[in-house]
Amino acid sequence: MTSQNNLRNTDQPLIASFPLYPPLELFHSLGLQPIVLWGIEKVFQKTENSSKHLQDYACSVAHYLTEFFLSDLGNHIEGIFHYNACDTLRNLPEVILRNLEEKERHVPGFHIHIPMSSLQDDYSESYLKTEINQLIGELEDDFGTVFSQHDFIKSVKLYEKMRKLYGEVEERVRDDLISFSQLTEAFLESTFQKVEYRIECFERTIEESNKKSPTSRKDEPVNIILSGILPPSSEIIQMIEDSGFIIVGNDIAYLTRMISKTPEREYWTSVQDYYVDFYKNHTPCPTLLYTSDRRIPYLNDLIRQNKAEGVIFLGEKFCEYEFFEFPYLKKLLTQNNIKLLELEFSKEDTSNIDSIRTRIEAFKELF
Fold first, then answer.
1. Residue 217 contacts by C-beta under 8 Å, 6 or more apart in sequence?
2. Side-chain half-sphere of 356: how many Cα atoms within 13 Å?
3. What is the pTM of this model?
4. pLDDT tens for residues 297-319?
5. Under a CB-based contact definition with an 8 Å cutoff, are residues 139 and 132 in contact?
6. CATH number of the domain to which 132 belongs
7. Helix and strand element counts for the chain (H, E)
8. pLDDT tens per residue, range 1-48
9. DSSP secondary-structure letter at 57?
10. Are the C-beta atoms of residues 251 and 314 closer than 8 Å to each other?
């Protein structure tokens, strides 16, 4: 796989970030190559190493990123970043770093703590700014680099370009010019690549879509939204689209939640201000507890703007944040006459494809 080869061939120090929403622009501006360790299921057929250290009830995201660090691919990593995203990921670095030390692989760990109660008061903002300052200092010390506001602005513009191109790819999916699989494939192809390569992937996908016409369909398709932590496999996406659905939008952490937000330039003057805005006004996510009040309005707007008639909830097994929220979402969306299908996935789910197909087809019959 080209992405894996890039880990070996890069000329920049690799810093591997835990999901969900790390400060990628900051790492890039310091001359590092950041990668976010999710969406890597295809790299490993099994998680034998991680299963020795993690409980069976840890989510697949935790298992696969642990497998990554304990594999030969982890040898190319020169730094590990994490923040308090969830209970599992919050405690996982200790397990990974200790195992790496036992193998005489000395990798520095970097961390920030994001206040989860609120980011609306001055104290929380000041606290987060201090966290960013400390992170910059630690990165400078470990990698022998110096932070530059000029370089940071250049990196922000680059990531902003990538996010805008992602939005254009989403529009092509919405217009039925390309499949949702092509969007996720562009992401997966660039998992271990520089942001510049992800931009190329999106540009290539857009260029290919310009040569196509909307898919010819026998019946009127039904517009739906996907919501969850990870996108489904290409096989599941094919089932959804073959059943007569168009995925007109997504509330998936790996996709839209992760890259839909770039703070507007007029609202920040420093890297600290940038990340206060980035986290405070981030796309609502159950793992960012202070955004919980915005979740329902956000989803309602997403449904309304895309004229969606239903939502397929892609549950990541053992993700307590998602499943604690789901009953509440189900109740409110049902009250608004939005039909809902819940599917649950785990790293062991490789043989229940036919049952999922049946549920998707039955869901289509409701419209």
1. 244
2. 21
3. 0.92
4. 999 999 999 999 999 999 888 88
5. no
6. 3.40.50.11890
7. 15, 8
8. 445 555 656 789 999 999 989 999 999 999 999 999 987 877 777 788
9. T
10. no
